[in-house]
Amino acid sequence: ILMADLDMTDVAYEIIGQTSSAPFKGTFDGNYHKISNLKIESANQYIGMFGYINGGKIKNLGLEKVDIKGTNNNSYTGGIVGQLNSGTIENSYVTGEVKGTSQVGGLVGYIGNSYAKVSNSYSTGTVTGTSYVGGLVGRNTGTITNTYVTGKITGASYVGGLVGYVSNSYATISSSYATVNVRGTNYVGGLVARNSGTITN
Predict the structure, then answer these.
(1) What is the C-alpha separation between 23 and 95, in angstroms, rounded?
(2) What is the 3-state secondary structure (H, E, C) of 114-158?
(3) 128 with 161: CB under 8 angstroms?
(4) What is the pLDDT of residues 30-69, one digit of tens each?
(5) Per the confidence metrics, is the pTM higher than 0.70?
C-alpha cells in the first residue's frame, strides 16, 4: 500500500515482474496517491511500472508525467503494465508519454486473456508505437469497462483511440470513450482499430 505521493525524478527504477516466469502476483494499492515523473527506457520484453502481471491486482493508483519507452521490437509496453495476463486494474490512471513497438498502450500494452479486467480507469497524454497501439490498451482479449482516453495516439497499423485490436470473441469493451487525435496507415479507429469482440455503450 502506498502511503504518500512519490516523485521519481532522477530515480533509477527497476521494473517489477520482469518476465512471464517471474510475474507480479500480489496486490498493489496506490491508496489514491500518485507516483510522478517515472522514467523507464528498456529493451525488456515486458515494460511498464510492472512488466508482467499474472493474477495480481493494481488499484487506486495514479501515475503522472510518465516517460516510458520500450526499445525491443517484440515488446509489450504500457504505463502501468506491459502485459496483464490475468488479474485486474481498477480506479487507476496514467498521464504522460508511452512509446514502444508492438502492443503499446497508455495503461496496458496487452491484456492477455479473458480473466483480465481493466475498470474505472483512464489515460491522458501521448502513446506512440508501430502496431497494436491504443490510448488505453494496445491489444485486448479481456474486459474493459468504464474507461476513457484523451490525448494523441500514433502508429502504423492497428491504431485505436482506446484499443488498437480487440482480438478475441470473448473480449468486451463497455461504457468507455476516447477523445483523441489518432494517426495511422492500416486499420485505424477513433475508438478501436479492429474488433473481434463486443463493444457496448
Answers:
(1) 24
(2) CCEEEEEEEEEEEEECCEEEECCEEEECCEEEEEEEEEEEECCEE
(3) no
(4) 999 999 999 999 999 999 999 999 999 999 999 999 999 9
(5) yes
Cβ neighbours for 156, distance < 8 A, ≥ 6 positions apart: 130, 131, 184, 185, 186
The rounded distance, in Å, linking the Cα atoms of 69 and 54 is 22
Q: How big, in percent rounded to 5, are the helix, strand and coil portions of the chain?
A: 0, 65, 35
d(CA 119, CA 145): 5
Distance CA 110, CA 85 (A): 8
Q: What are the residues whose beta carbons fall under 8 Å from the beta carbon of 56, sequence distance 6 or more? A: 17, 23, 24, 25, 26, 27, 28, 50, 87
Q: How many whole angstroms separate alpha carbon 11 and alpha carbon 40? A: 10
- d(C-alpha 102, C-alpha 87), whole Å: 22
In angstroms, rounded to a whole number, what is the distance separating the alpha carbons of residues 98 and 54?
22
Look at residue 72 and give its three-state secondary structure.
Answer: coil
Question: With the CA atoms of 197, 142, 161 and 66 taken in that order, what torsion angle do they form, in degrees rounded to the nearest 10?
Answer: -170
Q: What's the CA gap between 91 and 29, in Å, rounded?
A: 10
In order, the DSSP letters of 13-42 are -PPBS-BTTB-B-SEEEEEEEEEE--EEEE
> What's the CA gap between 114 and 94, in Å, rounded?
23
